[in-house]
Amino acid sequence: MTAVTDPTSTCRLTANLLRQSARAYASATLARLAAVAPHLGALALPSSFAEPAADLEVRVLQLAAAVEFDRPALLEHNLAWYRVAFHHRQVPADYLLRSTELLAAVLGDELPPAAAALARRHLQIGLMALTGPLREPPSHLRLDRPHGRAAAELALAVLENRGDDAMAQVRSLLQAGVGIPALHDEVLGPVLRELGRMWLLAEIPIADEHFGTQLVDRVLWLLQDLLPKPPADAPVVATLGVGGNLHDLGLRMVAQRLAAAGCAVRHFGPNLPASDLEWLFADRRVDLVALSATMALHLPALAATVAEVRRITAGKVPVLVGGEPFRLASDLVQLVGADAGAVDAAGAVSAALALLKR
Fold it and tell me: Which residues contact 288 (CB under 8 A, 6 or more apart)?
């Protein structure tokens, strides 16, 4: 099915309508669910998830993000993720399927015809993720990979609450000559992804995933002290997570790689709203801005941030974007108005250096 490529007309209008009335559409969907399947309408979701009304509201917002850029793959990915998570928490499979079908019916009744058709097309494509065999993500720990055993041992240390042992292991790898890029790509990244996968499959509690995140944070601060001081004439790169994006470990890895490549990096952390960008450029030179979006819900804020950078700098500073959504739809780079995009740290460094040479 061919997607419409202009996100500025019906797509943007539909996305705005969905956001403005997300709670109302969610409530109407839940009411219909209670009417046709009372056991699903009265369902209590697991404590790590919102109650059905709030869960459905988030679903509407996820739909809005996909519709704004007319990329159904974004919603399809979200629904596939929820399907796996709910399956491993004994949530009836019918809950996600029936509620999504009823959401399409509600939107068909409530939205203007063109907007309704667009939203329902996205939901129909998304529903494909809820049929057929359940596709679970494979383990990210592979012993046949370089430093794969070290990654597995680090993950085990996290799960056994042996933080000091994990840090000692990282120091041993550094002393053995393992470089920062290899630590990022072959050890820290796989451990983070594996902990996320294990939580998704309900194999570990969220506390273990958070403990691993904090451990990787400690490691990154350790690596920070090993980075070279940039030369006086080094290009200046500002790295930041857009408003609403509370995660920045991946972006910090990119920042460290850029510093190792000779850039002067100014990392401003996660969740920086576009409205605060003026001060970022007020008294400092910036040659490149690198922005991250962890999920599709962050894409509207990302596009707004790119536009604000263009306005403030009169289009003179290039913008690099990255994150999981760009793995799902690579042409999002152009749709959000950026100059280049990447889906991993190595690709981000390569793209950044290419932009700086222009």
Answer: 235, 236, 237, 238, 263, 317, 318, 319, 320, 352, 355, 356
> Long-range contact list for 219-224, CB < 8 A, 24+ apart?
219/167, 219/170, 219/183, 219/188, 220/188, 220/249, 220/252, 220/253, 220/256, 222/167, 222/170, 222/171, 223/180, 223/183, 223/256, 224/256
**CATH no. of 236-357:** 3.40.50.280
Planar angle of CA 130, 13, 125, nearest 5 degrees: 15
pTM (predicted TM-score): 0.91
Domain locations in the chain?
Answer: 10-130, 148-224, 236-357
Task: Name the one residue in this structure whose structure tokens are 């370089």.
Answer: 146
How large is the angle between the packed helices 72-87 and 93-110, nearest 10 degrees? 150
Characterize 54-76 residue by residue with b for buried, 16 or more Cβ atoms within 10 angstroms of its Cβ, and e for exposed. ebbbbbbbbbbbbbbbbbbbbbb
Answer left, alpha or beta for residue 159, where phi above 0 means left and psi between -120 and 50 means alpha: alpha
CATH of domain 10-130: 1.10.490
Instruction: Quick: pLDDT tens for 108-122.
Output: 999 999 999 999 999
Question: Residue range 134-146: average pLDDT?
Answer: 94
CATH fold of 148-224 reads 1.10.1240
Rounded CA gap, 209 and 159, in Å?
9
